[in-house]
Amino acid sequence: MTQALPYIPQRPPFVMVDNILHCDPVEVRTDFRIASENIFVQSGTFTEAGLMENIAQTCAARIGWLNQDKPVRIGVIGSINNFKVHRLPQVGETLQTTVTVGSEVFEAIIVHAETLSEGETVAECDMKVFVIE
Fold it and tell me: What span, in angstroms and rounded, lies between the C-alpha atoms of 118 and 93?
């Protein structure tokens, strides 16, 4: 387990990943404990936007991890498809997000993501990310 912060461009209060649990060229897995003061928490519940940002930052963690010899790179979400929220997690829960690369062409990366909490899938989607810097 490695702290994710050195590998992502985001800074508090906009950090939605805590640790990199696993990373290789095809798959990355992160965790994130939802705190009550998180900007994506409303009435004790982590919102859909927070789940999307957690997935995007998991992608960023992979890019940073694989390019440790370079400055942290910035990416943008190009598209999100098939986004399904099975349930919204609550404050105090820990998310585990796994992103699997389907294809990578130049600076475009297409991934499938699944976010779990307490062993249950809470969200999943396909995302296209463009590395711009």
Answer: 8
Q: Quick check: helix, strand or coil at residue 125?
A: strand
pLDDT tens for residues 13-32?
A: 999 999 999 999 999 999 99
Q: Residue 2 to residues 28, 52, 57, 70, 85: CA-CA distances in angstroms?
A: 12, 22, 15, 18, 27
Helix (H) or strand (E) holding 132: none
Report the half-sphere exposure of 128 (CA within 13 A, side-chain side): 7
Alpha-carbon distance of 21 to 69, in angstroms, equals: 20
Q: What are the helix (H) ranges across the chain?
A: 48-66
- Give the Cα separation of 16 and 108 in Å (integer): 22
Kindly report the pTM of this predicted structure: 0.96
